[in-house]
Amino acid sequence: MLSKIQNTFILIVDDTPKNIQLLGTVLKNVGYKIIVASNGIQALGILEKIKPDLILLDVMMPDLDGYETCKRIKESEKLKNIPVIFLTAKTQPEDIVKGFDLGAVDYIVKPFNSSELLARVKTHLELKFNQELLQTLLNFQRDMVLMTDGEKVIAANYSFLKFANCKNVEDFNLKYDHIMDLLEFEVKVEKNDVSKLLRLPKEEEFKVKMKRDNGEYLIFRIKQNVIPEKEVSILSLVDITQLENQKSSLEEKASIDELTKVYNRTKFQQLFKNILEENQVNPKSLCLVIFDIDHFKKINDTYGHNKGDDVLVNIASFIKSQIRMSDILCRWGGEEFTLLLVGSNIEDGVKICEKIRVQVQNHPFIQDRQVTVSMGITHYLPNDNLETFVARADNALYLAKRTGRNRTERN
Ligand SMILES: [Mg+2]
Q1: Max CA-CA distance within the chain?
Q2: 285-320, pLDDT tens digit by residue?
């Protein structure tokens, strides 16, 4: 046995002094420490001060019988994990079942056989010790660890229970019908598939989101180990929220133009590719606009580069506020921008450009000076790639510049 007999306390509860003496002798002979109570009420009194490792509980006692005493022990958060073995002269199945229903781990029929008694006591002490050892090992893990049958939680460590704001596993299972109620998989998973999914050895790692009681979402990498013959999964959940946030802020940095906060050219190319590949849009209703700020060099020369930057920022955010969510605005470079109109044919596209152009012309970006844009627009043709698409729009912009600026040309 892993735990020391000398440090093991057993509470004997029996109203017959002779029974206490007999039991006590057998247990003391092998080294157990004995505490005795002659009835249920006395036993509960003792249990308020001392927490034994195991309780041997007589069933037939005056006042508070063994069943009621056991019920109260199992109702107590502090005492419920102490194994209770009934000592009974009753051998009717219903009496035995009643004992188990009340939370007893075993029963011993009186008059008892010493070797059998010792064997059963030892077994249940070992079981309790192993459970405590498992719980200690689980709690020792800083990451959240839990065991599940794919539906309910069987065991969980302190980190997990703390996250779920539950006192213990029973509490968790009362609060959540299904473990899926807490976990949100990145991949959409139906509840019925979870038990299957949690036992899928091929896909051992998942990313899940979990919501705290305060509504805050955290992201976890969830790893599972399956014990197939037990139909049980051990899950460990590593908090990767910070890492994920860093990743998305890096991704954002890599895709956003630092000055104007609209997409940069790299991101634009990627989004364009996605749109064509994923067939998200009918290519016949895809227009590309290239526009730039007229005489931008003069603005910089007259008002300084800071003011020039302000104009870039304000024009970008002004136009962004004028376009649809599905349209994609990008700073192409310098004072040049591209705008992908998703879902517009060329006629509608020209109208949109004209509307924007007039709004820019009428907007006071700089005091006492009108800021205008020239725009070139084209629509997508079969076999276009980004270069040919851009080149056509660029030609249209060139035409707009050459024919007087502050105008829209189509190609
Ligand atoms: Mg009795």
Answers
A1: 117
A2: 899 999 999 999 999 999 999 999 999 999 999 999
Q: How far is the CA of 59 from the centre of ligand 1 (A)?
A: 6
Number of domains in the chain: 3
Tens of pLDDT, residues 350-374: 999 999 999 999 999 998 899 999 9
Q: Residue 65 Cα, ligand 1 centroid: separation in angstroms?
A: 8
Quote the ligand 1 centre to 121 CA distance (angstroms). Answer: 20
Q: Which has more confidence, 226 or 270?
A: 270
Residue 406 and residue 358: Cα distance in Å, rounded?
9
Distances (CA, A) of 233 to 36, 201, 289: 42, 10, 55
Pick the closest to residue 60 from 107, 27, 28 (CA basis).
107
What are the pLDDT digits (tens) for 109-124?
Answer: 888 899 999 999 999 9
Domain residues for the domain of 320 are 256-410
The DSSP 8-state label assigned to residue 369 in this structure reads: B
Cα 111 to ligand 1 centroid, rounded to whole Å:
12
- The DSSP H or E segment spanning 383 is none
Give, as residue ranges, everything with CB less than 5 Å from ion ligand 1: 15, 58, 60
Are 11 and 37 in contact, with CB atoms under 8 Å apart?
yes
Q: How far is the CA of 58 from the centre of ligand 1 (A)?
A: 6
Tell me, what CATH number does 22's domain have? 3.40.50.2300
- 114 & 214 share domain: no
CATH number assigned to the domain comprising residue 199: 3.30.450.20
What tens digit of pLDDT does each residue of 50-81 get? 999 999 999 999 889 999 999 999 999 899 99
Segment 84-108, tens digit of pLDDT: 999 988 888 888 889 899 999 999 9
Active site residues: 335
Look at residue 316 and give its three-state secondary structure: helix
Quote the ligand 1 centre to 126 CA distance (angstroms).
27
Helices (H) and strands (E) in the chain, counts: 14, 16
Residue 75 backbone class (left: φ over 0; alpha: ψ -120 to 50; beta: rest):
alpha
Residue 38 CA to ligand 1 centre (angstroms): 9
In DSSP notation, 84-123 reads EEEEES---HHHHHHHHHTT-SEEEESSPPHHHHHHHHHH
Domain boundary among 138, 161, 187: 138
Question: Are both 237 and 275 inside the same structural domain?
Answer: no
CA distance between the termini of the chain: 88
